[in-house]
Design brief:
The chain is an alpha/beta fold. It has eleven helices and 17 strands. It starts with 10 loop residues before the first helix and ends in a 13-residue tail after the last strand.
Length: 423
């Protein structure tokens, strides 16, 4: 195990030291602490964040910044939304009906045009490899800053995509990775009775304590112990039922549509309702260097129903003001089609969408020029975008976290400041 890896709770990892899956009541030590924490409740209203990450980079000209009179327009027809003056691609008819809950940022501009580096940058606010550090992702920052320490579930859950982890924040803020939202977390099913569980967990705890007494500075041992603490808490919690989508009525499931992304959005709603601070749902395939028009249309249609239903559900359940939804990729795509009918990487000018979060939504921030090749009004850098997200969630973006060697690192690097037009 390394501190920077994003570790799903596989059955093998759960049982390899204890000999069987864990079930039952704790006996002593850190398990007693976990049981005490699980019994505590909080009356404070907490903010939540759902990141819908479109890996591969969507085309802004085929989604939220159509340029019908440009030299290389999208075949998508522009449709009106429920906000006068805001039009989006016809692939989003349902999203158009809830645009009053959304803000489109049409003037995103970022420095990284490589997929891996761009994704790292938009998840962390730092360029990969800079400073010799592995920086924490936005999900881990939210886990640390707005997550509840006593909460029985992980404060960061990643569904269906690559997970960027906690970096120097350590294993407590690592994401729980759910590869298939339909399957949930398979390890939660019981396999042994309570007395067997107690005996095995006591043995595990004695082994852990003995090793830590002789190796108190062993970071990997501490990380291993933290991972098991989280696993036991999850296994014992009533909140873990949030992963069971069979509890949803058929009508609720059908409202989100079909496919893994749709199911992931439904699971995200259940998790934030339960109290999870940050949920990421991934949808890949947007890297359309060939056949851009058909592929972007198909992917956008996969997004429309679940994105709109997620907004609708959270609004009807009184959770939308406390939940910020982010729709973004790592950059945009070229305004002109290439020789293969595709669009290439384009970080200079692209679009992202925010919804809910108590923002004064129903607006567009920024603009590109007629061709979509440059920012014409109110550029928004990646650092400014992340600082704005922090402000919306009640996080001090200028706070400095300490690395294990005592180096202070800002949550959002300078010169990132929130965008007042969004807030």
């Amino acid at each position: 195990m390394t501190l920077n890896s994003a570790l799903p709770l596989s059955r093998r990892e759960m049982v390899k030291f204890s000999g069987a899956a864990l079930l039952g009541a704790p006996l002593s030590g850190w398990l007693n602490v976990l049981a005490t924490q699980a019994a505590q409740t909080s009356q404070t209203r907490h903010k939540h964040c759902i990141l819908l990450f479109m890996a591969g980079a969507p085309s802004q000209k085929d989604t939220f910044d159509l340029k019908p009179s440009s030299a290389s327009p999208s075949p998508a027809r522009a449709i009106n939304t429920n906000v006068p003056g805001i039009q989006i691609a016809e692939y989003f008819p349902r999203l158009a009906t809830v645009m009053n809950h959304c803000t489109i940022v049409r003037s995103m501009t970022t420095p990284e045009g490589d997929h891996g580096r761009g994704q790292f940058y938009m998840h962390t606010g730092y360029r990969e490899g800079s400073g010799g550090l592995t920086y924490p992702s936005l999900g881990s920052i939210c886990s640390s800053e707005i997550g509840r320490p006593e909460f029985n579930l992980p404060n960061f859950v990643s569904i269906g995509g690559r997970a960027y982890g906690a970096g120097f924040l350590g294993p407590r803020h690592q994401p729980l990775v759910v590869g298939n939202p339909n399957a949930g977390v398979d390890n939660l099913r019981p396999y042994v009775n309570g007395s067997q569980f107690n005996a095995r967990v006591s043995m595990l705890e004695e082994m852990e304590q003995g090793f830590l007494r002789t190796n108190p500075a062993a970071n990997q041992a501490q990380a291993h112990r933290t991972t098991y603490q989280r696993a036991v808490t999850l296994l014992r919690s009533n909140e873990a039922r949030a992963f069971d989508l069979s509890a949803e009525p058929a009508s609720a499931r059908s409202a989100y549509g079909t496919g893994q992304f749709a199911t992931g959005c439904l699971l995200a709603r259940r998790l934030v309702e339960t109290g999870v601070a940050f949920v990421e749902v991934g949808l890949g395939g947007w890297d359309t260097h060939q056949n851009n028009n058909d592929r972007q249309a198909a992917l956008a249609r996969q997004v429309d129903r679940p994105f709109a239903q997620l907004i609708t559900d959270l609004h009807e359940r009184g959770k939308l003001n406390d939940t910020l939804i982010i729709w973004m990729g790592e950059f945009g795509r070229t305004p002109r089609l290439n020789a293969n009918g595709g669009r290439d990487h384009f970080p200079r000018a692209w679009s992202a969408v925010l919804a809910g979060g108590g923002l004064p939504n129903g607006r567009v921030v920024g603009a590109t020029d007629r061709e979509g090749t440059a920012i014409a009004n109110r550029p928004v850098t990646g650092l400014q975008f992340l600082a704005t997200i922090c402000r919306a969630l009640g996080i001090d973006h200028s706070k400095q976290n300490q690395t294990p060697i005592g180096r202070p690192v800002r949550i959002v690097d300078r010169p990132g400041e929130p965008v007042r037009e969004v807030l």
